[in-house]
Amino acid sequence: MSLPVLRLKPHQDRRLRAGHLWVYSNEIDTAATPLKGLEPGQPVVIENARGRFIAHAYANPHSLICARITSRDREHRLDRSLLVHRLKIALALRARRYAAPYYRLVFGESDGLPGLVVDRYGDHLVAQIGTAGMERLREDIVAALDKVLSPVSILWRNDSAVRELEGLERYVEVAHGQVPDRVVVEEGGCRFEVSPSEGQKTGWFFDQAANRDRLMPQVEGARVLDVCSYVGAWGVRAAHAGAREVVCVDASARALEGVRENALANGVADRVQGLQSDAFDALRMLKAEGERFDVVVLDPPAFIKRRKDMKEGALAYRRLNEAAISLVSRDGLLVTASCSSHMGRDELLRVVQQAARHGDRYLQLLESGQQGPDHPVHPAIPETAYLKAFYLRVLPGM
Description:
- This protein is an alpha/beta fold.
- The protein folds into three domains: 5-71, Archaeosine Trna-guanine Transglycosylase, Chain: A, domain 4 (Roll); 80-177, RNA methyltransferase domain (HRMD) like (Transcription Regulator spoIIAA), CATH 3.30.750.80; 205-396, 3-Layer(aba) Sandwich (Rossmann fold).
- The protein has helices spanning 14-17, 80-97, 132-135, 138-149, 162-165, 209-215, 233-240, 253-265, 279-288, 310-325, 345-358, and strands at residues 5-7, 22-24, 43-47, 53-59, 65-71, 102-107, 116-121, 124-129, 153-158, 171-177, 183-187, 190-194, 223-227, 245-250, 272-276, 293-298, 328-338, 361-369, 388-396.
- α10 crosses α11 (345-358).
- The chain is globular and about 70 Å long.
- The chain starts with a strand and ends with a strand.
């Protein structure tokens, strides 16, 4: 069966030939190949201005990103067979890098499956679709996951706001087997339980695992503040690694209940306490009370979701870091992160430096981190390199 064609304007194929997978609506020659009439998620062929094949893709005429490339092989469009192949390639990477089956199995474009995320919790999988093209392949995705991994359960966690940009409804739905109320994550010698259906995102933030590993040798005997703690990945692990006291701050009572349960399960409940509060309010209160910490961890949600939010978001990062730095003990450590793809690494460091100077503090950058290898970066797609983490020594002004 022949597929609809989307033909590019002259010279608009360079970025795609360099490896990018997104086609923007203003790059299409709509006089030759109208977008109007295409269904969201419909398979299409992308051609250059001369009518030469570039790739298979799926389209969405209602989105700025009007097509996403799925295959550059003319003979193989994205179907169940190719899904199985791509999943096996993704699994091979994780099997080499992780001793236990707790990781992000599929990271969208970086694994050749744009619009799809799959997290693995042992024999249980939590999957999330963000595009109309992948939504059309729901049954094939489940069948492919079953063929490659034979999981006990698969949960669709399709409740992210990004789906609305694609004209998709939000829902949480069991796709296969019986999904437990809690799934287990093993990380750094600790055991955590999270809710796959009610937790944040897909239940766990695997992307920060390597950055947490980097911090743990530095916390023995320290007093640690974990801001935006969720269920205690940083804080509980710090206590397990020898921190003498940990305070976990989160606005969610449910998240702090998770902190308590995970601290108890790992034998560190006597050294971990929760503080339910907005992050900014908590930092102001702790400063007013004269509290100081040897290590402060800032792992906030994305303050910059869209490029137009850059100015306001950068100010939020500065204010949060400013407040946190004021709580760091003399010669202490600040670990600060951003998961906003629009906030570049250099820009984040500049903002944190400004925050330090406002409080007459001096910073030394000791280490930096990014997302773990289960979130591989696609070199042609800068947006996939979204996570930044800095480990900064905080000293009095010099």
